[in-house]
Structures are given as C-alpha cells and as structure tokens.
C-alpha cells in the first residue's frame, strides 16, 4: 500500500496535501476530537465560537493561551518534514492546512495555505487592528499575561486571528485552496477527522475532478469513504516510509 502511494505521488503532475490536527499530534499538539483532544471537557464547539467569546472571553483566552503554550513547545515531526521534502523534490505543489500552529512553515514548506488562520496572530474584535505576535516578539507576553488583551487603537478586546465555527473562512484563502484542489491529480490527506466544512470539501473536489485521494490516519475519518489508498498509522511513521 505504501509503495502504491509512493508511486502515485512520484507519477503525479500536481500533488497537494490537506492536513489537520493529527499531523501535529506526534509533535505534542493536542487534537480537537481525540480522546485527549479535549480541553477541560469542553467540546471545540463550546470554545471556538463567537458566542463563547462574547459570553466568556476569559475562558476562550485561557484555552488559546494553553494551546499557544503547547505549540510553542512543539517542533515539526517527520510528517511535516516529509511534506517539505516532497515540495523540495518538486512533487508536492502546496500544503493546505486546517492547523493554526505554523509547524509546516517551520519544517520548511514554502507554499502553505492556512484555512483557519494562525494562532500567533491576534486581531481586534471590533476594528481592523491586526498584529503578528511572532514577528513582534510578543508571544510570551501574551501567553503569560493574566489580563484580557485590548486593542491599542480602540480598546475593544483582541481575539486570536483564527476562524471559529459560524465564521466565514477568508475568501481569498478559500478560493486559492479550492483552485489548487481543482488542479490537483493527487491529494495526500493527513490527520484530519474530515468533519469540518468547508475545509473538508478539498479532497472531494480533487476526487470530483478525477484525482486520487491518499489518506493517512490512525483511524477512519469523513474522508475515508472516498480514499483510493488508506494508510492506517501515525502520520510521522507513515510519511517517513513514503519518502524512503
Ligand atoms: C492522527 C494522529 C496521528 C490523531 N497520525 N492521524 C456543511 C455541512 C455541515 C456543517 C457545515 C457545513 N458548512 C459549514 C458548517 C458548519 C461548521 C461545520 O463544519 N460544522 C461541523 C462540525 C458539522 N463550519 C463552520 O462553521 C465554518 N464556517 C462556515 O462554514 O461559515 C459559513 C459562513 C459563510 C458566510 C458568513 C458566515 C459564515 C468554520 C469552521 C471553523 C473551524 N474552526 C476550528 C478552530 C480553529 C482555530 C483553532 O485551531 O483553535 O478549526 S474547529 C477545529 O476543527 C479546528 C480544526 O482545524 C478543525 C478540524 O479539526 P481536525 O484538524 O480534523 O482535527 P480533529 O481533532 O477533528 O481530528 C484529528 C484527526 O487526526 C483524527 O481523525 C485522528 O484519528 C487523527 N490522528 N493522531 C495521523 N499521530
Ligand atoms: Zn480595535
């Protein structure tokens, strides 16, 4: 199966990857829906929404500070590096990720489409203020602060620059991802439950346009029914073998 997947990739014309929280699990970043994916027993739908932020911004910020701390302590794993290497070899044309952890870029992937934003950026809940905390060297300050962060322009609350349930994905980003999927003849789907839309349309678009779907996951997902090749296992281990 792994050999078949490697062959498909090697012969592809425009391969892309579509990744989710499972690709970062071996880096120590908790997933959303796994058995240890939940934070203090809250479901993602109870934390990653506008309503939750309006009702209890302190709870939502606690959650994001906890996640940022985990992500800060994380390094890319062999799966992230394998995708960067496949791009370097000219095989992989883009990584479309639902993750907000920056690990694909850290591993050296150049063409990364972040569908759900980035945890190292914040924006104002009311005005157009945005800030990249990583570039400004302010990540630790944010993570360690006990106060709710406020906008320097208008005084409203700042929020993580990520996409919550019920919010539209950035239009240009989604269009870019869908265009890549339409062009693609092989999509490597790694570590996603494939339950969250519109992101989960990506492999379906590839399939509809005649492309092949290779899935890597420790269990089955919403994408498994359309997978041409299903590789059961940990992303880091399977991807290291594919590259061999
Ligand atoms: C391993 C592994 C290892 C573990 N190796 N594998 C159509 C149909 C139905 C519903 C909808 C629809 N369209 C919209 C909706 C509503 C909603 C939705 O999809 N709901 C479903 C849950 C039913 N979607 C939305 O609300 C989206 N917005 C939208 O549609 O807006 C419409 C609109 C238009 C115009 C104006 C206004 C509105 C937005 C969705 C945003 C999702 N946001 C989050 C949080 C992001 C910020 C953050 O990170 O904090 O995104 S929620 C969370 O889920 C996060 C993830 O990116 C996303 C997906 O999760 P993922 O990555 O799949 O993780 P898990 O944990 O679910 O799965 C891990 C997988 O890895 C598992 O399969 C494991 O087996 C596997 N695994 N270890 C390999 N070592
Ligand atoms: Zn503001």
TrEMBL record:
<feature type="domain" description="Deacetylase sirtuin-type">
    <location>
        <begin position="1"/>
        <end position="244"/>
    </location>
</feature>
<feature type="binding site">
    <location>
        <position position="64"/>
    </location>
    <ligand>
        <name>substrate</name>
    </ligand>
</feature>
<feature type="active site" description="Proton acceptor">
    <location>
        <position position="116"/>
    </location>
</feature>
<dbReference type="InterPro" id="IPR026591">
    <property type="entry name" value="Sirtuin_cat_small_dom_sf"/>
</dbReference>
<keyword id="KW-0805">Transcription regulation</keyword>
<dbReference type="Pfam" id="PF02146">
    <property type="entry name" value="SIR2"/>
</dbReference>
<keyword id="KW-0012">Acyltransferase</keyword>
<feature type="binding site">
    <location>
        <position position="67"/>
    </location>
    <ligand>
        <name>substrate</name>
    </ligand>
</feature>
<dbReference type="InterPro" id="IPR029035">
    <property type="entry name" value="DHS-like_NAD/FAD-binding_dom"/>
</dbReference>
<keyword id="KW-0808">Transferase</keyword>
<protein>
    <recommendedName>
        <fullName>NAD-dependent protein deacylase</fullName>
        <ecNumber>2.3.1.286</ecNumber>
    </recommendedName>
</protein>
<comment type="function">
    <text>NAD-dependent lysine deacetylase and desuccinylase that specifically removes acetyl and succinyl groups on target proteins. Modulates the activities of several proteins which are inactive in their acylated form. Deacetylates the N-terminal lysine residue of Alba, the major archaeal chromatin protein and that, in turn, increases Alba's DNA binding affinity, thereby repressing transcription.</text>
</comment>
<dbReference type="GO" id="GO:0036054">
    <property type="term" value="F:protein-malonyllysine demalonylase activity"/>
</dbReference>
<feature type="binding site">
    <location>
        <position position="127"/>
    </location>
    <ligand>
        <name>Zn(2+)</name>
    </ligand>
</feature>
<keyword id="KW-0862">Zinc</keyword>
<dbReference type="GO" id="GO:0036055">
    <property type="term" value="F:protein-succinyllysine desuccinylase activity"/>
</dbReference>
<dbReference type="InterPro" id="IPR003000">
    <property type="entry name" value="Sirtuin"/>
</dbReference>
<keyword id="KW-0963">Cytoplasm</keyword>
<dbReference type="InterPro" id="IPR027546">
    <property type="entry name" value="Sirtuin_class_III"/>
</dbReference>
<dbReference type="InterPro" id="IPR026590">
    <property type="entry name" value="Ssirtuin_cat_dom"/>
</dbReference>
<feature type="binding site">
    <location>
        <position position="151"/>
    </location>
    <ligand>
        <name>Zn(2+)</name>
    </ligand>
</feature>
<keyword id="KW-0520">NAD</keyword>
<feature type="binding site">
    <location>
        <position position="235"/>
    </location>
    <ligand>
        <name>NAD(+)</name>
    </ligand>
</feature>
<feature type="binding site">
    <location>
        <begin position="20"/>
        <end position="39"/>
    </location>
    <ligand>
        <name>NAD(+)</name>
    </ligand>
</feature>
<feature type="binding site">
    <location>
        <position position="124"/>
    </location>
    <ligand>
        <name>Zn(2+)</name>
    </ligand>
</feature>
<dbReference type="InterPro" id="IPR050134">
    <property type="entry name" value="NAD-dep_sirtuin_deacylases"/>
</dbReference>
<dbReference type="GO" id="GO:0070403">
    <property type="term" value="F:NAD+ binding"/>
</dbReference>
<dbReference type="GO" id="GO:0017136">
    <property type="term" value="F:histone deacetylase activity, NAD-dependent"/>
</dbReference>
<dbReference type="GO" id="GO:0008270">
    <property type="term" value="F:zinc ion binding"/>
</dbReference>
<keyword id="KW-0804">Transcription</keyword>
<dbReference type="GO" id="GO:0005737">
    <property type="term" value="C:cytoplasm"/>
</dbReference>
<comment type="similarity">
    <text>Belongs to the sirtuin family. Class III subfamily.</text>
</comment>
<feature type="binding site">
    <location>
        <begin position="98"/>
        <end position="101"/>
    </location>
    <ligand>
        <name>NAD(+)</name>
    </ligand>
</feature>
<feature type="binding site">
    <location>
        <begin position="217"/>
        <end position="219"/>
    </location>
    <ligand>
        <name>NAD(+)</name>
    </ligand>
</feature>
<feature type="binding site">
    <location>
        <begin position="191"/>
        <end position="193"/>
    </location>
    <ligand>
        <name>NAD(+)</name>
    </ligand>
</feature>
<feature type="binding site">
    <location>
        <position position="154"/>
    </location>
    <ligand>
        <name>Zn(2+)</name>
    </ligand>
</feature>
<keyword id="KW-0479">Metal-binding</keyword>
């Amino acid at each position: 199966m792994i050999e078949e997947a490697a062959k498909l990739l090697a012969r592809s014309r425009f391969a892309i990857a579509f990744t989710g929280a499972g690709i970062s699990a071996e880096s120590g970043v908790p997933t959303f829906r796994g058995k240890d994916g939940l934070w203090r027993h809250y479901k993602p739908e109870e934390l990653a929404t506008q309503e939750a932020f309006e009702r209890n911004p302190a709870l939502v910020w606690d959650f994001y500070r906890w996640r940022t701390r985990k992500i800060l302590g994380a390094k890319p794993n062999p799966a992230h590096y394998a995708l960067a290497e496949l791009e370097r070899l000219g095989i992989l044309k883009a990584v479309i990720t639902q993750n907000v952890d920056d690990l694909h870029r850290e591993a050296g992937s150049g063409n990364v489409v972040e569908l759900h934003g980035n945890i190292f950026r914040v924006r104002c809940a009311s005005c157009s203020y945005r800030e990249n905390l990583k570039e400004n060297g302010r990540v630790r300050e944010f993570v360690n602060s006990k106060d709710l962060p406020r906008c320097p322009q208008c005084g409203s609350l700042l929020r993580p620059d990520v996409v919550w349930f019920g919010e539209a994905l950035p239009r240009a980003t989604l269009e870019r991802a869908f265009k890549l999927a339409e062009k693609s003849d092989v999509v490597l789907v790694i570590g996603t439950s494939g339950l969250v839309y519109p992101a989960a349309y990506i492999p379906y678009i590839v399939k509809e346009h005649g492309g092949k779907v290779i899935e890597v996951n420790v269990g089955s997902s919403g994408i498994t029914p359309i997978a041409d090749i299903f590789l059961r296992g940990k992303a880091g281990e399977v991807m290291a073998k594919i590259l061999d």
